[in-house]
Design brief:
- The protein has 232 residues and is mainly α.
- It folds into 2 domains: 16-162, ABC transporter transmembrane region fold (Up-down Bundle); 172-232.
- Helices cover 84% and strands 0% of the residues.
- It is built from 10 helices and no strands.
Length: 232
């Protein structure tokens, strides 16, 4: 982390620029992500071949050969998985650092009058939890592209090769699930926005209670302020 170089981003309000900034890391994510998720399909295939060889009484040499191949495939898959997860985490850490740099830079360059009109809780939430939520969303999006999209496509292709009729019937439920997920997205967004708003309000109340604790105590309002805080 000592060698981590954080640089400003042009147009930080556009999320695509954070992926453009980490070109090498994103390239590694794509390479290892595709390699890992496509090769994952080979695991169950060779596992089935090994089971068939044992149950059908295949020769010892053939069974051992398939077993060694299966173990080698699993080892390769786990190595690819390690590098994929490593670079996804590296991307998330670099993006988090860049976002915080831009937020702190924006705050430091505001005038006293602009800072005076800002809500303290909102500033705290924006610099801490909002960045974490945004980065976590980007990390999950990057992960799901491969662990859901690419992996599902690889499984569907392999299943079509084995039995296209059963595969075609099973894929009919995928559009239904996608439609339901799309309908739920607006509901989840509404509650997420309400949560962030309430989080900002609570942070503002917490800051006020800490900064003015002596004033509240001197005026005998400490217990009343504590009850108000608990209600929030």
């Amino acid at each position: 982390m000592a060698k981590l170089k954080i640089e400003p981003i042009k147009e930080p309000n556009k999320m695509i620029n954070y992926w453009k900034k980490e070109k090498f890391v994103v390239f590694c994510i794509i390479v290892f992500g595709l390699s890992f998720n496509i090769s994952t399909v080979l695991g169950p295939i060779y596992q089935g071949k090994l089971i068939d060889s044992i149950l059908n009484g295949g020769s010892l040499r053939t069974t051992v050969k398939i077993g060694i191949t299966f173990v080698a495939i699993i080892v390769c898959i786990q190595v690819l998985r390690y590098f994929k997860r490593f670079y996804v985490r590296r991307f998330a850490n670099n993006t988090s650092a860049s976002m915080r740099l831009m937020i702190y830079n924006n705050i430091m360059h505001k005038s006293i009058s602009e800072l005076g009109s800002e809500n303290i809780g909102n500033l705290m939430t924006r610099a801490i939890s909002d960045v974490d939520l945004c980065v976590e969303g980007m990390r999950k999006f990057t992960t799901e592209i491969f662990d859901t999209g690419v992996l599902m496509a690889a499984y569907i292709v392999s299943m079509f090769i084995y039995d296209w009729k059963i595969t075609l019937f099973s894929t009919l439920f995928i559009p239904v699930a996608m439609i339901i997920a799309e309908k739920l997205k607006s509901v989840i967004y509404k509650y997420s926005a309400a949560f962030r708003k309430k989080s900002s309000e609570v942070a503002d109340i917490t800051y006020d209670a800490i900064e003015n604790s002596m004033v509240y105590r001197a005026n005998g309002m400490e217990s009343q302020n504590r009850l108000s805080y608990n209600d929030e």
